[in-house]
Design a protein that fits this description.
The chain is mostly helical and 197 residues long. The chain has nine helices and no strands. The protein has two domains: 104 residues, Rna Polymerase Sigma Factor, Chain: A (Orthogonal Bundle); 91 residues, Arc Repressor Mutant, subunit A (Orthogonal Bundle), CATH 1.10.10.
Length: 197
């Protein structure tokens, strides 16, 4: 993924890849997809909590990206912010069409394998903690939940999260702070070690 630091020359590779994709260059389209699929998928999975739905919705998001790409206008704003706005809208549409999301217990292998540990007890504890965290995030107010998911599940910066949600950066920082405080309160009864942080 492209992460410009501010100078005009830093934006050039991203701008060029987008323009190439807009002109129908399949390699550039593939590059945009490859650069953003993990970020989009993590966001959708965090919002829907169901692997199969997350795969389907992620596919729809990229179809919408491809359809909307000819109208995309370069504004020196990371492409991810535009794409995550599409993702957010598609998740909202999906949940409206299908009612409240249904969680399944299947988590992607990369989440399960992160500990690089073959200890079944430790893997089970990690899965239970992830499920507890997902349930706690679901209890947050919508604005806080969106910020937490975009920042930590998708890995967007504060600035990109602000652009994706159409908010000011200071507002994102406040929502993140309040969301993290609330998560600490929600998680501390089961995980008392969080109280000392």
């Amino acid at each position: 993924m492209f992460t410009p630091s501010g100078a005009d020359s830093d934006w050039e590779p991203q701008r060029r890849a987008i323009e190439d994709a807009q002109s129908g260059d399949l390699d550039a389209l593939g590059s945009l997809y490859d650069s953003h699929i993990n970020q989009v998928y993590r966001y959708v999975l965090a919002r829907l909590g169901n692997v199969h739905d997350a795969e389907d919705v992620s596919e729809e998001i990229f179809l919408k990206m491809f359809a909307g790409l000819p109208n995309y206008q370069w504004r020196k704003v990371p492409f991810a912010a535009w794409l995550m706005r599409i993702a957010r809208n598609e998740v909202v549409s999906f949940t409206r069409r299908n009612g409240r999301r249904s969680l399944d217990t299947e988590l992607p292998e990369d989440v399960i394998d992160r500990g690089n540990n073959n200890d079944p007890a430790e893997t089970t504890e990690r899965l239970m903690a992830l499920e507890d965290l997902r349930k706690a995030v679901d209890l947050l107010p919508e604005a806080q939940r969106e910020v937490i998911i975009l920042r930590f599940a998708s890995g967007l910066s504060v600035a990109d999260t602000a652009r994706a949600l159409g908010k000011q950066e200071n507002n994102i920082k406040v929502l993140q702070h309040k969301g993290m405080q609330r998560l600490q309160v929600l998680m501390t009864p089961k995980y008392p070690e969080l109280a000392q942080r």
